[in-house]
Write a structure and sequence with these properties.
By secondary structure, the chain is α/β, with parallel strands linked by helices. The chain has an eight-stranded mixed beta sheet with strand order 1-2-4-3-5-6-7-8, with helices on both faces. It is globular, with a radius of gyration of 18 Å. Keywords: Hydrolase. It holds the Pfam family Abhydrolase_1.
């Protein structure tokens, strides 16, 4: 069956080997581009990809330094640069009129991409999108220049533990199983990611301001969990007001990780929005 075809590949973009996955080969189908969030990877879309494949050709990207993408300390890990990675990948794949789907930090990467090249994107779907975050505190940025600071990041994440982190992003904790824990933990077996995260602390410029969001005319769908502890629902409501051509939907008893928690509902809303 055509929808079972999956291509795993890497492409050097801005000096970094970017891992991406293509699901389906039918060029006549609309193209969905899936962009994950902070400390995540394409793994976070594993439950909705099979549900979306019947109607879309799907491209899922591992942003640097996450997933199977190179963990580079030379790459400037700004939202602006990550958006350029998405844009350049699609340009090299000769994809036009794509629909972006961004979860958490991936939402602001998607909005950055739409802001940079609005003509490339037909629509954008934002799943609990990171919004209105400022640049990190100068003390933390200065600390990132200290030798072996990456070990502090590694120690902090280890103390948090994968289970505690998942408790923070999933409302229904019964959904957390061994597969989920191993999937989100896997990229962190490579110590180089902690060095790259140190660079990210330095480079993260903060989210797009309201005056920039007000100028983004691309049709957008915002999907939120009402129990989101990471990006609370009032942030989503504000983002919806700032985006002039947006539609906002929220789900009760749902946390931050909406693609994992309510895949059927998310798929249904994406299809209704993108195919209309």
């Amino acid at each position: 069956m055509e929808k079972s075809i999956v291509i795993h590949n890497k492409m050097n973009i801005l000096g970094v080997n970017i891992h991406y996955e293509i699901y389906g080969t039918d060029m006549n189908k609309p193209t969905l581009v899936l962009v994950h969030g902070f400390l995540s990877s394409t793994f976070c879309y594993r439950r909705i990809i099979p549900l979306l494949q019947s109607e879309f050709r799907i491209i899922a990207i591992d942003l640097p330094p996450f997933g199977k993408t190179e963990k580079s300390t030379r790459f400037v890990h700004s939202l602006n640069n990550m958006a350029k990675v998405v844009i350049e990948l699609l340009e090299k794949l000769q994809i036009k009129n794509a629909i972006l789907v961004g979860h958490s930090m991936g939402g602001q990467v998607s909005l950055n991409a739409v802001n940079q090249k609005p003509e490339m994107f037909k629509k954008v779907v934002l799943l609990c999108s990171s919004s209105y975050m400022k640049r990190l505190h100068p003390t933390l940025i200065c600390g990132s220049y200290i030798p072996y600071f990456y070990l502090c990041i590694k120690h902090w994440l280890a103390r948090q533990g994968i289970l505690k982190n998942l408790y923070n992003v999933v409302h229904d904790r019964t959904l957390i199983d061994q597969e989920m824990m191993e999937g989100y933990l896997e990229p962190f077996h490579d110590d180089q990611i902690f060095r790259a995260l140190t660079r990210m602390i330095r480079d993260h410029e903060g989210d797009l301001p309201s005056e920039t969001l007000n100028k983004i005319e691309t049709p957008s769908l915002l999907i939120w969990g009402e129990e989101d502890k990471v990006v609370p629902i009032h942030i989503g409501e504000k983002l919806s007001k700032d985006l002039p051509n947006s539609n906002f939907i929220s789900f009760k008893k749902t946390g931050h990780l909406v693609p994992e928690e309510i895949p059927e509902h998310v798929t249904d809303k994406i299809m209704n929005f993108c195919l209309s």
